[in-house]
């Protein structure tokens, strides 16, 4: 068992030992018996090097997204919404509910997915807008599920009724530097379902075309052609309300 301490408040500095310490690993015993200074065993060193750094920036204590980890309870991030999924109904193990998710990027270009369920999903689905900036805190950080989350991030955040989602005004914009853009010429070398940010000049905007889906429903599609400084052209397919 390993205990990770993220914050510590000293209540009493002079405490007597109740009993002799018990070492979980035999090789730690001579290294734990120190007086002049601590010595780190190979086992503890290997674990320590895998821990993310817990750094914050600015006087607002805003944490870069890349420093988040599941062991961290107190954090605040700031980012711009780059993608928003429509709220959906789900039914799992005799339970019905709703789920809503959106992606944000911070000033360093790091991204993460935010997910809400049930009443929280209904609340935030109408509050979150693509392109707007938000400050988020008091969420639950966990490992992402690659089945539902295609972002290049191993973590995601789940919001609860205790979480804070605050809209930023223009003076509090999160990504003054902007996200790193991928040249269109490099898209042909990426695997399917890779999420990227691109920027380009619109060359052509097609008409909205009705599309009949296999389940009998109907949606809409529009094709937009763009090119960029890499002198490459690509079609952007817009579906549904985005069209």
């Amino acid at each position: 068992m390993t205990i990770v301490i993220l914050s510590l408040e000293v209540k009493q500095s002079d405490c007597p030992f109740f009993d002799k310490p018990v070492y979980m690993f035999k090789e730690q015993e001579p290294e734990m018996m120190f007086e002049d200074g601590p010595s780190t065993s190979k086992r503890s060193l290997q674990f320590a090097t895998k821990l993310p750094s817990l750094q914050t920036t600015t006087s607002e204590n805003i944490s870069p997204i890349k420093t988040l980890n599941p062991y961290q309870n107190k954090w605040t991030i700031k980012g711009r919404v780059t993608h928003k999924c429509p709220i959906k109904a789900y039914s799992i193990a005799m339970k019905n509910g709703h789920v809503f998710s959106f992606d944000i990027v911070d000033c360093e270009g790091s991204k993460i997915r935010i997910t809400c369920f049930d009443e929280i999903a209904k609340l935030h689905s109408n509050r979150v807008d693509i392109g707007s900036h938000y400050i988020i805190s008091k969420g639950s950080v966990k490992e992402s599920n690659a089945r539902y989350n295609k972002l290049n991030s191993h973590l995601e955040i789940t919001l609860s009724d205790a979480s804070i989602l605050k809209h930023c005004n223009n003076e509090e914009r999160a990504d003054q530097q902007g996200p790193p853009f991928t040249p269109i010429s490099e898209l042909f070398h990426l695997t399917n379902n890779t999420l990227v940010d691109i920027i380009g000049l619109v060359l052509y905007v097609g008409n909205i075309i009705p599309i009949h889906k296999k389940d009998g429903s109907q949606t809409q599609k529009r094709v937009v052609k763009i090119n960029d400084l890499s002198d490459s052209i690509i079609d952007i397919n817009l579906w549904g309300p985005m069209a």
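Residues 27-59 have pLDDT under 50 and may be disordered. The first strand starts at residue 76 and ends at 84.
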